[in-house]
TrEMBL record:
Keywords of this entry: Cell shape, Membrane, Transmembrane, Transmembrane helix
Record family assignment: Belongs to the MreC family.
Function: Involved in formation and maintenance of cell shape.
Name of the protein described by the UniProt record: Cell shape-determining protein MreC
GO cellular component, one term: plasma membrane
Amino acid sequence: MLEFLRKHKNKIILPLALLIYGTIFTLNNTDIYFTAVGIFSPAEKIINGIIKDMEEYWYGYIFLVNTERDNLILRKKLRDSGKLKYSFEELKRENKSLKEFLSFKEKTGIKSSGASVIFRGASSESDTVFINRGTEDGITKNMVAVLPEGIVGKVVKVSKSLSMVYLITHPNSSIDAIIQRTRDRCVFRGGKSCKLKYLNYNADVKKGDIILSSGLGGVFPGNFPLGKIVRVEKDPSGFFLNADAVPAADLSHLEEVLILENPYHLEIEQLKKSSEQ
């Protein structure tokens, strides 16, 4: 409509003005004539102004529509670039984790397989996790889950494709351990606050000492980090020291773990059975 008025305004306005002028002229009335001329002579300017304003509004609207469209495209590109950045950061993290795992496997020389944590209790402090490996992947009960930083826990139940792991903070977890600096024996006991049990009353241990697995018991391999001491006090009984500890591995952000194969597990089980006979 606007385009039609703009193109044909002269064809519409001029004949209409001439018709009005001619009609008034035939009336031969001077006052009416000059009055009409005074009224209609600016008509073209007024209509031109209206059309110009409408054109400006129209093209302004088109500009805003195009701007909004460009903004949508730009926002989509920004979202896509954000996704690419996130994916790149995830790949970097996974690559770093993989390198650490490979280095750890080479260092220990123990056969192991990777597993992902697929379920955990409602809280990040839950002491039980499930991994996506089971009997069809060669996982058996009492296999140990570790990170390069230290021991995570052990497998307690296994299905065809899943396994349940008790973390070392689980109340039912007890691991034979030694203090790295003094070589004193103790038991690393899980719970809301991890404890060192049966620690010699005269042991020269202190806050910050590193706790390692002793390798005794036939489940956990020896010389793997368990945690460190955060508090020491003498037991009133006079027999043992009481000590609090924290795990060496970050158990609150578990995503992947290594499941260690125990090369002595079958032999130990056979010896146990033979001794019972």
